[in-house]
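ASSEMBLY PREDICTION REQUEST
Request ID: AP-0331
Submitted by: J.K., bench scientist
Number of chains: two
Total residues: 653
Priority: normal
Notes: Please return the full assembly, not individual chains.
Input sequences:
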Amino acid sequence: MNSATLVVRDVTKVFDLGAVQVHALRGVTLSIDRGEFVAVMGTSGSGKSTLMNILGCLDLPSAGAYLLEGIPVDQLGRNALATIRNEKIGFVFQGFNLLPRTTALENVELPLLYDRRHRIAAPSSAAEAALVRVGLGDRLDHLPNQLSGGQQQRVAIARALVTAPAIILADEPTGNLDSRTTLEVLAVFQQLNREGMTIVIVTHEPEVARYTSRIVELRDGLVQRDLPVPLPGDAAADLAATRQRVPA
Amino acid sequence: MKWSKLIHVAVQSIARNKMRTLLTMLGIIIGVGSVITMVALGEGSSRDIERQVASLGTNLVMVRAGSSQVGGARGGAGSLINLSMSDVQSLRSGATQLQGVSPEIRVTAQIIAGAQNWNTSVTGVAPEYLSIRNYQVKSGYSFGEREVRTRAKVALLGETVVRELFPGEDPIGAAIRIRNVPFRVIGVLAPKGQSAFGTDQDDIILAPSTTVLYRLGDGKTVRAIVASASSSEQMADAKEEIGTILREAHRIPADGADDFHINDQSEINQMATRITGTLTLLLSAIAAVSLLVGGIGIMNIMLVSVTERTREIGIRLAIGARPVDILAQFLVEAAILSLLGGIIGIAAGLGSAWGIGSLLGISVVVNPIVIIVAVLFTGAVGIFFGFYPARKAANLNPIDALRYE
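STATUS: Completed
Returned structure:
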C-alpha cells in the first residue's frame, strides 16, 4: 500500500435524465496523499461537485475505481457507505448546514451519535476539544443563530474534525463569507493541515485556492491541470495584516 | 444511535412545535379519552346491575304456582293453588342441589302501630329466607324453627316500614297489629334499596311462614317457593331437580305439563350481558374510528415534518447516519407523539368518567388491563402511521436532501 489517502482511477459519472445522458465525469484519475491540502477548481458544469460527492461517498461512480485508505469504496452498499462517511470523512458545506436550535457542542457531537463502533469514548469531551481546536472553546452553548458566519463555519469544521477522519472535504466553504471571514476560515484549515489533516476544498475562487498546496483544475469532466502551488499564502498572517490596515 | 438519544431528539423536536403537537394529538386524545370514559362507566354500570341482581338473592330459584284453566279462560301464573307446605317439605328432604328452601306466603294488610298505620305486604317465610334473599338483620334478632313450629306472632320490619310506623323510635319490642292480630317486633332488616325492577325491597314485613299461613292467610295458599342453588354453576341442575321432585309430588304423568313455573335470574344476567356486549361493540367501533383518524393526523404531520427537516436529514445522512437510523428517529417521534396523546387521553377519560359517574350516580370501574391496552395500542398506532413518513425520510438521497431549500 502506498501513502495515498485516496486514489481515484478512470472515474466516470453519467446521469441518465431519460432523454439525454449527462456525462459529468469522463474519466478522472487523481491521487491525494496524506497531509495534502488540495483545491479542486473549475467553472460551474466542470464536474467538480460530482467529483466531490463521489469523494465524499455520497454518490457512487458509474465506472472506475475509488480507494479510500485502501478500501474499494465503489463496491460498498448504503449502510457500509454511511459507516465510511461517519468514520473517514469530515464534511464542510457552503451553507454551514448546522442543525438549527441546537448548540454548537451538540452540533459537533452529532457525528459521534452515529459512531456505531464507539471509536471515541467520551463524545462530549471530544466535541469540546474539537471546538477548542477551531478557536470556539468559549462558544460551546451558543446556538447557530447566535454565531457569526465565520464562527458557524468553524463549528462545521469542528464537526468534521471530531471523528478524526482520514480527510476533510469542504465544498465552497467560503462561498457565503466576506473576504476577512474567508481568511479566518482558511487560517483554520491551514492550521489543521499543518497538524497533519488531509483537506480537499472545492472552490471556484483563485483567491481561496492560492492558500492550498495543490490545485486540481477540472474542465468538462476531465482533469485539465494538476499543479502544486509554488508559494502558498499564509492566511493567518494576511488576516493579521488586514487587522492592522483597518484600525479598530 | 442509542435509545436514550433517539428519545431525547424526538422529544426535542416534538417540544419545538407545542401547538402543532397538541393539535396532532387531539384525535388520539379524544379517541382514547372517550373509550376510557365509556369503558369505566360501562363496567361500573354492569357491576351495579350485578350487585342489584345479587341483592335479589344468591343463586335464587323461584317456584310459582301454575296457571289455572276454568273452561276456556286461563288465569295468570300463580292463579292455581297447588303449591303447599308439603311441597316445601319434599324439596327440603329430597333436593341435593339446594342450600335453602323457603315458602313465600304473602298477605297484604293494613298495619297499625300506636297512632300510625301503613299498608304493606306481610311475607311468611322459613328462617332460611334471609340468606336466600340476602336480607340481613340490622338490629334485634331473627326467628328460628321454634317460632315457625309454634306459629309465634313475631315480625321483622324493613327499613321503610320502620320509618312509616315508628318515626324516630326504636321499634324493637314494640307491638304492631296485622289484621287485628298483635305481633311483637323482634328485629329490623338492613336496608337493601330498590330492586333492579324499581320495587322497594325495604317495604316489607317478614314473619314465620306458619304464622302468616294459619293466622293471617287461608291456611293453604303458598304462592311461591324460593330456594338458593349451592352455586351459580348448579343453577340448571337445581332447577331440574326441583322440577322432578315437584312433578312427583304433584303426581304428574310423564307426558303431562308442569303445573308450576320455575324462574331464575339467568334472564336478567343474559340481558345484562347482552347490553354489555352491545356497548363493547359500540366502544370498539368508536375507538377504531377515532384512532384511525388520529393516526392519519399523525401521519400527516410527520410527512410535513419530514419535508421541513429534509436538510437536517441530509446532514445526518452525510455525517454517517444509516437509513435505518433515520427511520428509527422518525418512528420514535411518531410513537412518542401518539403515546403522549394516549396518556393524556387516559387521564382525560378517567377524569370525565369520574365526573359523569358522580353526576349520574354510576360506579366507575378502572380496569388496569384497559389502560395497558390503550397505551400499547396508541404506541402501535404511532408506529403504524409513522412508518410511511419515516421510510420516506430514510430513503432520501443525501445529495438532494442537502440541496433542498
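REVIEWER COMMENTS: The two ends of chain A are 53 Å apart (CA to CA).
SIGN-OFF: pending second reviewer
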